[in-house]
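User: I'm writing a tutorial on reading structure tokens. Could you give me a worked example: one chain, its sequence, then its tokens, then a sentence or two explaining what the tokens reveal?
Assistant: Sure. Here is the example chain.
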Amino acid sequence: MGAVEARLAELGLTLPEVVPPLAAYQPAVQSGGYVYTSGQLPMVEGKLPVTGKVGAEVTPEEAKGLARTCALNALAAVKSVTGDLDRIARVVKVVGFVASAADFTGQPGVINGASELLGEVLGDKGVHARSAVGVTVLPLDAPVEVEILVELAP
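And here are its predicted structure tokens:
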């Protein structure tokens, strides 16, 4: 077990199995010294624990926890192509999508769930640029979707 996975264990977290693609794409792709993940839904054991719009059927607090799950799934996708999360030099960018009720404007707070998890797990290597975007609907009626871009150490 590497240092990153040891840190996950200290936090009481287990790296999940990679969520199988829902369509014609790969969960993560390495290009040169970078790994790009596809959008990760907050799947737990192959299922969405909650569906609906944030600010309507899903509370912002629930959605923040779901964003955390998305980030954990994204780390699993990174490991699937690198074999070792200790190869991460830094998280460069996080993009989070929040299926939002028409009057919901708290997308940044929701995506903090993903950003905070990456910081807890990776320390300074988890500090990143970010976008938090409100959308009408996400695949499978998921409340949140997160993708990450990581740079690998040489």
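What the tokens reveal: The mean pLDDT is 97. The CA atoms of residues 115 and 144 lie 13 Å apart.
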